[in-house]
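Second opinion, please. Pick holes in both lines of this record:
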Amino acid sequence: MEGFVLLLVAAVSMGMTIQAVGQENSRSNVSAMYVLGDSSVDCGINALFYPFFHQNLSLFPCNGSNSILLPYLLAEKMGLPYTAPFYRQNGSIEGLLSGVNYGAAEATIMSPNSLSHQSLNDQLRQVFETLQLFELQLGRESAYHFIRSSIFYLSFGKDDYIGLFLRNFSGVMVKYSGHEFAQILVNQMVNAMRNLYDLNVRRVICMGILPLGCTPSFLLEWYVPTAGGNNNDGTGCVEEINERVLQYNIMLEEEIIRLNEELPDAQIVFCDLYQGVKKIITHPQFYGFEDANSACCGLGLYGAEIGCLSADMACNTVSSHVWWDFYSPTPEVNSLLADSAWSGEVLLSNICRPTTVQDLVYTPI
């Protein structure tokens, strides 16, 4: 990491400034987007050997390409370049000022059980290093305005709940109630947003968790043939899992409302992916889908007995499926969510609150 920072310092010392960065986007009032999260924001591993792992060991968790994920679709609508992964940076200050993706597959809010996985705090440390470098090398005033005019995108929690329920399946006792577990996660997310605010971040997009009880993996885990299928909520989804996730989303949105009221100039948007995906699953044909249960890429019941080991395993009609693999939506679903998040499109109504991402982008700080 020291070598990485030294390269950045050298780049700045050669006379680079932030004036040219984001010129094309000046009308949108956004300088750049910085992304933190799990596999919903990046297919690979946030590590020094990122290029190797991303290409060879990602197991195609998001159709083998980051470009169909929500933050990339939203960046395109903002007129911003795709955010490059943190460890793919080549030492160019211009690269960092164009936005950074700190995300990593299987990243969690809580400290992970595996040293190969990242936590929210790990990514926050990388953000701190980046913003501190901006201040040191660009000057306090320039860095202050650049950070305030940038957008930070947070998408965590999915893998915390996946881990929770998988531990239940294995017979390991979970020491938290549903409310306690959600409260712990929400508290850490709130602390993260407060820490970003202290670093002069003012614009934040915070994504809720999609309905995990509707994903192919959990439909398989909870499948009980003798009971007529899953313990479902009328759409084939696992009610118990969705109730836990919904509890987290509700608590998180309530805290975001409080933060917006408490923190001067804060503009934090909560995007309710749960409700958006649930509407699609409840009325799949209305939204143009034929299969709302099975993964497009995978084998066995629900396409979830063997995961997506190769893109060659994918179905021929990706656009007819809601789910790409165990837990990830298809590009078509992400496109619908991005349209709604951006402008409050009627098909899914306003999934982002208290305002759309478009309004967030075009409202000056």
Notes: The longest strand covers residues 33-37. The longest helix spans residues 239-262.
